[in-house]
Amino acid sequence: MVIRDARFLTSNTKVELCPAPTMPEYAFIGRSNVGKSSLINKLVGRTGLAKTSASPGKTQLINHFLINENWYLVDLPGYGYARVSKTSRTEWSRMINYYLRHRENLACVCVLIDSRHPPQAVDLEFMEKLGEEGVPFVMVFTKIDKQSAAQTRELIASYLQKMGESWDELPRHFLTSAESGAGRDELLNFIGEVNQE
Ligand code: GTP
Ligand code: MG
């Protein structure tokens, strides 16, 4: 898919205030600092469109971007940041769970996972929950530029094996880097395919 146009629309905490659910929507979610905002920028080829930061917890709201005037990309706040208070964590859960359940145009959730780490409970549980709720999702492994291809292959293989313990059919997965642009075309083509459905 060619990106002709990408622009920021709104930031908010309430699904009711999000842009009209008239176009398919793809939400990026995952642990704080996993690279959600960076990958969004790389996908659309616009540095600085989604705000990024070296310290976790940068994205706090539901951020909508309109792409090619016919689909939405959504940058969500990260989960699993240890230094966040219990109250903030509860607020996060409430906002995100409500969003995931009620956003009627949600075409697919992209669950971002750092390709350098072994499977983490917080990610596995989050995906379990998506499965239980019937929310379509794919796994997007990030930051593959930070290690060798062999290391990535090994970690992803063990990750998928772990997933295989609880899933009959493994969700689709992508290997990406916001640095090198690896996986960009594959992810955009996937979105293009889903948009056609
Ligand atoms: P929160 O909004 O805080 O949840 O974080 P986020 O998931 O949006 O992460 P963000 O895109 O802000 O990136 C976090 C840090 O990781 C930044 O310092 C980025 O430059 C870096 N980063 C993100 N993606 C990549 C990548 O693919 N490769 C490398 N080398 N660094 C990356
Ligand atoms: Mg972010």
TrEMBL record:
<comment type="similarity">
    <text>Belongs to the TRAFAC class TrmE-Era-EngA-EngB-Septin-like GTPase superfamily. EngB GTPase family.</text>
</comment>
<keyword id="KW-0547">Nucleotide-binding</keyword>
<dbReference type="InterPro" id="IPR019987">
    <property type="entry name" value="GTP-bd_ribosome_bio_YsxC"/>
</dbReference>
<keyword id="KW-0717">Septation</keyword>
<keyword id="KW-0342">GTP-binding</keyword>
<feature type="domain" description="EngB-type G">
    <location>
        <begin position="22"/>
        <end position="197"/>
    </location>
</feature>
<comment type="function">
    <text>Necessary for normal cell division and for the maintenance of normal septation.</text>
</comment>
<keyword id="KW-0131">Cell cycle</keyword>
<dbReference type="InterPro" id="IPR030393">
    <property type="entry name" value="G_ENGB_dom"/>
</dbReference>
<keyword id="KW-0479">Metal-binding</keyword>
<dbReference type="InterPro" id="IPR005225">
    <property type="entry name" value="Small_GTP-bd"/>
</dbReference>
<dbReference type="Pfam" id="PF01926">
    <property type="entry name" value="MMR_HSR1"/>
</dbReference>
<keyword id="KW-0460">Magnesium</keyword>
<dbReference type="InterPro" id="IPR006073">
    <property type="entry name" value="GTP-bd"/>
</dbReference>
<dbReference type="InterPro" id="IPR027417">
    <property type="entry name" value="P-loop_NTPase"/>
</dbReference>
<protein>
    <recommendedName>
        <fullName>Probable GTP-binding protein EngB</fullName>
    </recommendedName>
</protein>
<keyword id="KW-0132">Cell division</keyword>
